[in-house]
């Protein structure tokens, strides 16, 4: 793959520098057959440095998860060498199956098959709370 000339694929841009690899794993790109390029510490006019992920296939992306992990990123969808869509994932109102509730008394710790689900309690500060016990989500508790 020649970096910069994707015919069909997605470009995940404005990833905070150093977090590209993390996103690569969250998106399960390591388990896919498609070609992936991770560009680390690319120059960014706005943020100094950034990471970029380029995938040479139009894959399904979990925008809720992307918005939760890095709300400043942009996703370009490219078809026939033309950018057909630019998506700015936002903090989702609800997020399920991405973060776990750490409260040992929460119903999700006894009911193993229950999906961990959080609601956005404070958009300005990006604070999520468990829908079952109202415990605040920790940023590091991504599944
Ligand atoms: Zn809970």
Overview in brief:
The protein is mainly beta and 143 residues long. It folds into 2 domains: 79 residues, Alpha-Beta Plaits, CATH 3.30.70.140; 37 residues, no CATH class.
Poorly predicted runs: none
Shape field? elongated
Q: State the share of residues found in helices, binned by percent.
A: 10-25%
Can you give the mean pLDDT?
89
Number of separate strands:
8
Element pattern in H and E: EHEEHEEEHEE
Which secondary structure elements does this structure contain, and how are they paired or packed?
Elements lengths: L8 E8 L3 H7 L9 E9 L3 E8 L7 H7 L4 E6 L2 E6 L6 E3 L10 H4 L6 E6 L4 E4 L13
Antiparallel strand pairs: 1-3, 1-4, 2-3, 4-5, 6-7, 7-8
The structure holds zinc ion (ZN).
Descriptive tags:
five-stranded antiparallel sheet; 143 residues; binds zinc ion; mainly beta
Characterization of this structure:
Strands 2-3-1-4-5 form a 5-stranded antiparallel β-sheet, with helices on one face. The chain has a 3-stranded antiparallel β-sheet with strand order 6-7-8, covered by helices on one side. The chain folds into 2 domains: 9-87, Aspartate carbamoyltransferase regulatory subunit, N-terminal domain (Alpha-Beta Plaits, 2-Layer Sandwich); 94-130, no CATH class. The protein is mainly beta. The chain has 3 helices and 8 strands, in the order E-H-E-E-H-E-E-E-H-E-E. The structure holds zinc ion. The site of zinc ion (ZN) has 8 residues, from loops.
